[in-house]
Amino acid sequence: MDSLTTLKIGLGAVMANRLRSALTILGVTIGIAAVIGVVAIGEGAQNEVTGEIESLGTYLITVSIRGRGPDRVLTQSELDDIVQDIPGIAAVSPVVTASGTAKHGTDRFECSIVGVNNQYSTVRDMQVESGRFISAIDVNARQKAAILGQNVALELFGLSNPVGETIKLNGQTFSVIGVMESRGGSITGSEDDQVIIPATTAERLLGRRGFTAFYIKGQDKDSVDVIASSLENRLNRRFRDEDAYRIFNQTQVLEIVQSVSRTLTLMLGGIAFISLLVGGIGIMNIMLVSVVERTREIGLRKAVGATNRDILSQFLLESVVLSLIGAVLGIGVGTLLARSIAIFIGISPVFPWKGAAIAIALATAVGVSFGSLPAKRAANLEPIQALRTE
User: Which of 293, 298, 297 is nearest to 311 (CA)?
Assistant: First the structure.
C-alpha cells in the first residue's frame, strides 16, 4: 500500500471509534496543555521579575549602609574616596530618601522626597520629559530645585506645564525645573510619586548629615563584579564590620532569579510530562484493544497482499495521529490556561514557541513509542490464524 492509502485507512480507523479515540486523545491533550501552560507561566513570571529588577537601571550596584549613628552614614567626600580609582564605573549617586508633602496652592500630595546628584539620571536610566535634570551647580550650591514625578505633577498642576512654577516641600519653597517621564511601579514603589531634589538640599531639608545609600552604574556587565568586589574591600576598611553595609549586585541577582526560574520551570515541566506519559500508556492500551478487535481485518489485508510493513505502518500511523491531534488541542488548551492564570496573578504569559515545537515532537515520539508494541503485534499475526478468529 502507498502512504496515502495507509493514511486514509488510519484516519478511518480513528473516526470509526470516535468516543474511544476522543478519550484517548484527552490524555495526551492534558499532558501537552500542562507542559505548555507551565512553561508559558514560568517564562512570563521570570520576565516580570527580571523587568522589575532591570527597571532600577542597567549594570546597577546598590549599597545600603545599615545601623544608626554618625559611624553608619557616608559623606560625599567619603564616597568620593571609596569609589576613587575603581575601574569600570560609569556614574555614582548618593541617595537620601524620606516621605514628605508637596503643595501647590490648595493642592497637596503625599510623596517620596529623593535627594540625589547630577549623575542619578545616568545611574537609573531616567529621562526628563520636560525641563532639565539636576546639575552639578544645583548640588554644590544647595539649590532648592525640584523635579516632579508624573503623578505629583498631575495632582498639583493638572495638565499644565509645572516647569518654572514653585511648590512647597515640607513647608519650604522649591522651583520646579523638570518633570520625569512616567516610570510606573517597581520593587521600590512607584517612581511617579517622587520629588527629586539635590542631595545636599535634602540633607538640609530633612535635618540629616550624610546618606545611608548610594548607587553605582557599571560601564558593562563584566565591570559590575569588579566594582562590587572593590567596594566590599573598601567598605570593610571604612566600617570594619561586614554587617554595616549591604551590596546589591543587580547582575548576580538577575542570574540567580533566572536560574531559579529555569529550575522551577523544568521541575514543573517534568511533572507535567508525567501526564503525557500517562496519555501515551492510554494510546498503547487502546491500540492493543484495537489489534484484538481487528484481527480478522488484519488477516484479510495480509491475505490480499498487505505486507508486515504495511500493517506496521498503518497501526503506527493511527497511534501518531491520535498523539498529534492531542498535541494540537493541548497547545490550544495550554495557551488559554496560561492566559487565564496570568490574568488572575497579573503577569504576561510568554507563549513558548520552542516548547510548542518540542510538544509536537514529544507527541510524535509518544505515538511511535507507545504504538510500536501494538503495531508489531498486528504485523506479526499469521493471516490464516487471523482469519479464523471469531
Answer: 298
DSSP 122-159: HHTT--EEEE----HHHHHTT--EEEE-HHHHHHHHTT
Residue 189 is placed in which grid cell? 514603589
Residues 209 and 75 in one domain: yes
Whole-number Å distance between alpha carbons of 35 and 270: 8
- Same domain for 214 and 335? no
Domain boundary among 219, 247, 265: 219
Q: What is the pLDDT of residues 243-298, one digit of tens each?
A: 788 888 766 666 666 677 677 767 766 766 776 777 777 777 777 777 766 666 66
- β-strand pairing of 172-180 with 166-169: antiparallel
My answer on whether 181 and 96 are in the same domain is yes
Q: How far is the C-alpha of 318 from the C-alpha of 100, rounded, in Å? A: 71
Mean pLDDT of 294-320: 70
User: Could you tell me where the DSSP H helices lie in the chain?
Assistant: 3-16, 18-54, 76-83, 120-123, 136-140, 150-157, 199-206, 221-239, 250-293, 295-303, 308-345, 353-379, 383-388
Whether 243 is in a domain gets the answer: no
Boundaries of domain holding 308: 3-52+255-388
- CA 93 remoteness from chain centre: 29
> Which helix (DSSP H) or strand (DSSP E) does residue 184 occupy?
none
The answer to which of 138-142, 184-188, 290-294, 367-371 has the lowest mean pLDDT is 184-188
Q: What is the pTM of this model?
A: 0.59
User: For 346-357, what is the mean pLDDT?
Assistant: 70
Residue 186: all three cell numbers together? 517597581
pLDDT confidence bin for 183, thresholds 50/70/90: confident
Cell readout for 333 is 488548551
Total count of domains within the chain: 2
Answer yes or no: do 87 and 204 share one domain.
yes
- pLDDT band of residue 151 (cuts 50, 70, 90) is very high
d(CA 383, CA 261): 56
Same domain, 167 and 281: no
Q: How far is CA 226 from CA 80, 121, 219, 229, 233, in A?
A: 17, 22, 11, 5, 11
CA 251/CA 20 separation, integer angstroms: 53
Per-residue pLDDT at 351 exceeds 80: no
Above 60 in pLDDT, residue 132?
yes
